[in-house]
Amino acid sequence: MYGPIGSHKQFVSHEQKTAATKIPKVNKMLNVENKSVIIIGCGVGGTALAARLASRGFTVDVYEKNEHSGGRLSLLHANGHRFDQGPSLYLMPRLFEETFDDLDENLSDHIELMQCERNYSVYFGDGDRCELSCNFAKMYNEIKRYEGESEKTLVNFMNFMKETHVHYERSIEIALKNNYEHWYNEFQLKHVPNAFRLHLWSTVYGSVKKFFNTEKMRQAFSFQTMYIGMSPYDTPALFNLLQYTEIAEGVFYPRGGFHKVIEALEKIATKKFGAKFHYNSNIKKIIVDEDNVAKGVQFDDGRKEYADIVVCNADLVYAYNNLLPETKYGRKLGKHAALTSSSISFYWGLSKQVLELDVHNVFLAKDYKASFDNVFQQQILSDDPFFYVNVPSRIDATAAPEGKDTVVLLLPVSHISANNHDCIDKWVKRARHRCIQILENRLGIKDFESLIETEIINDPRSWESKFNLWKGAILGMSHSIPQVLHYRPSIRCEQFKNLYFVGASAHPGTGVPIVLCGAKLAEQQILKDYGFIERGHDDIIIISQYLLFGLTMTALFLAIYYFFFF
């Protein structure tokens, strides 16, 4: 039913291979002259970057406020149950492999991946259920139940896969493999066709609507935006790459929990390359001198540590407003940045297995659009919510005691705002009652609450306090068009020298595989800035293209003017 898988090398295209060879391999240590790096936070971005920089010969120290690694990717344990505190869907596998390849390691030597037989069980608002799968025959048969037996159903599905494939491949090439230091890096003539191929002016739901006629299939192929903390009615269409990777590559789970990714990267960073990780080390501020150069960090106890380079893996908006000197840019982010959703997450240890639940389950609302609008527009708790349920013990028996189940229920809610900060306790109580009621009704089981023998809860306030997430937004800044590529906060801080960012709110964005790409881009940026690899002549070429285009347009205008008026 479920089992381990091998390498994903077959997914790596020529474009990715070419992009992956832009910097030297790690076995070619650079002469970094004992340059030191302090990394604040050991989430997946900070940990991956620690391994990368240590592999180059930098002296790397990572400081983490909590007693454990991983940030949102950490684990919770209670009464024999193991809970993934945050991410539970292992997607875009080749990006994980690339990180380990760059460190001269095989991912399969560190992590045992198990592929889910079904991607999801999706429960619609009327109680109907469908299964999403990476098995093409099963997926097509499921679609036919709703869309009909005609040839058009198959053609539409294939066209959907074709468009989302383009979104997936082009997004990796353009957004995840390239840094955007300057505005002109983004606005290049070669990118003009991509603006149309990526359907930047459409939404995920609007795009899906072109290929599916029934409302249920439109919902089944658009709810995935909840994993980047956005509504399908607002998310740019290119993000239906999420549906593509689930169908084309599958959904996986690391045996022992998602935290195994962090554990493997930390082990490589420390045992192989000599990086040092320090826990229970809460940083009060980043030390900046009178020339606006980051020099080190100061801890709660007053102790100071200095380094040549400072990298912040803490929440970016939080850092600008709490760790750094006040700036106009920081105030702007704190007040006006568009944020992703937060969540009320219930971690339940059940006294017995509930076999009606699959590994991944999605419960959608009767009024699909209103349920998203309540979260992202009105910022209220809906009486008819949508939510996601993960049962890791269904695929990994080590997640729960024998004969029992470990369940994580994630209910998206608004981040903390003036509309809701006084009513979160009421939200938690209402959400728990309503979600249990929906589970009982749609699964056809009675007294689900009596099965709960262990319970831990995270809400927007605990996300904020545990991990310094600004306003409790669990995925940082959103991916609206004004907050991607050049418009997203850059990896290299523009306000303070020698300071870099890696993580969900920095370029290229949120999500574990995306942040892993961000760590690689941060490595490249640091190596370029300190002259360890050549910067190349890209900027000169781009500016020359602009000048040539301007001269051509000027000559054309003059020619037309002369033709008509002389």
Helices and strands in order:
Elements: E1 3-4, H1 14-20, E2 36-40, H2 44-55, E3 59-63, E4 75-78, E5 81-84, H3 93-102, E6 113-115, E7 120-123, E8 129-132, H4 136-147, H5 151-176, H6 183-186, H7 192-197, H8 204-209, H9 215-220, H10 241-248, E9 252-254, H11 259-272, E10 276-278, E11 283-288, E12 294-299, E13 304-306, E14 309-312, H12 316-323, H13 328-336, E15 342-350, E16 360-363, H14 368-376, E17 387-390, E18 405-413, H15 424-443, E19 452-458, H16 460-467, E20 499-501, H17 512-529, H18 538-565
Parallel strand pairs: 2-3, 2-14, 3-10, 7-16, 14-20
Antiparallel strand pairs: 1-6, 4-5, 6-9, 7-8, 11-12, 12-13, 15-18, 15-19, 16-17, 17-18
Helix pairs in contact: 2-11, 2-17, 3-17, 5-10, 12-13
Strand order of the largest sheet: 8-7-16-17-18-15-19
Number of helix segments? Answer: 18
Give the helix proportion (percent range): 25-40%
Percent of residues in β-strands: 15-25%
Radius of gyration (CA) equals 24 Å
DSSP, total strands:
20
Spatial gap, N to C terminus: 80 Å
Question: What name does the CATH topology carry?
Answer: FAD/NAD(P)-binding domain
Contiguous low-pLDDT stretches (5 residues minimum) are: 4-27
CATH architecture: 3-Layer(bba) Sandwich
The CATH superfamily appears as FAD/NAD(P)-binding domain
* Structural class based on helices, strands and sheet pairing: alpha/beta
Mean pLDDT: 90
Bulk shape: globular
CATH class: Alpha Beta
Q: What is the total domain count?
A: 1
Q: How would you sum up the major sheet?
A: 7 strands, mixed
